[in-house]
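Figure 2 data, in text form.
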Amino acid sequence: MPNAIVVHGLTKRYDTLAAVDGIDFTVPEGKVFAFLGPNGAGKTTTVEILEGLRNRTTGDVTVLGFDPWTDGMPLHKVIGVIPQDFRFFEKITPKEAVEYYATLFDVKVDPMRLLERVALADKAHAHFDTLSGGQKQKLGLALALVSSPKICFLDEPTTGLDPQARRGIWDVIRDLRREGRTVFLTTHYLEEAELLADQVAIIHKGKIIAEGTPAEIIRDHGRPERLVVEGPPSLGEFLKKRLDRPVTVEDGHITIQMRDKSDALTVLRAIEESGIPWKGFATVSDTLEDVFVGMVGRMDDGIMRSEAAP
């Protein structure tokens, strides 16, 4: 499968600060790629370089075969962009905004159909300054789709949306993938990335610290699956002596680390043999958010310890 985006050795420096520090990644055509990281990690700088809004210091970058900085004009005709905290003319209506963008891109588009696609048709004639934050985001997404782009750069597209509206935007993103379009998604909603993305890259302190499918990242960087039992501390102490695996007890819950799913049967047999009353159990696996928080937290702790050392 050809790649829509290829990044190799990308750096962006501001004097001695490396906002982006030699990163590499590729984005296949027709896939959803989630680019994740805490604030200040280098996400925005990287995305602006890909969009041709900021020049790189060193490295090679191609987007649909174009160099974003030197080939900005042809590139901008085939990409769609929704920035975070989208803003527009205060007194324009969504319908007028779509018509305006269609004129800029010299394309024909049905404004109402496009607004229906992002669940904003009911606000087609409302002034922009009367829209809620979520509705403004929906309009930004609609405008990003006006030119029928090959790549959509979506920066926090569901910020400010209620749960139902968020799911509506997820459906739009899935439709874009089914149509063969590439989606470059940045989001602080990690469950959103886990649900939607074919591939994920996590950036921290300007470096890529994990890359792969959500399942691969969870497998490679997450904790083993656990069995959590609701029971008294005495049951936890019994299991610590009986089982050859880590057991922790906290707030009325006993957590047993498993090597594989068959371990659950061994644990449940031990619980029954204990004769100690218990209420219920569940198996627990790490989510992408668990992995993200754990990796970033461990790296930050390591940096702080290093800085504190004499």
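Caption note: The chain is about 40% helix and 25% strand.
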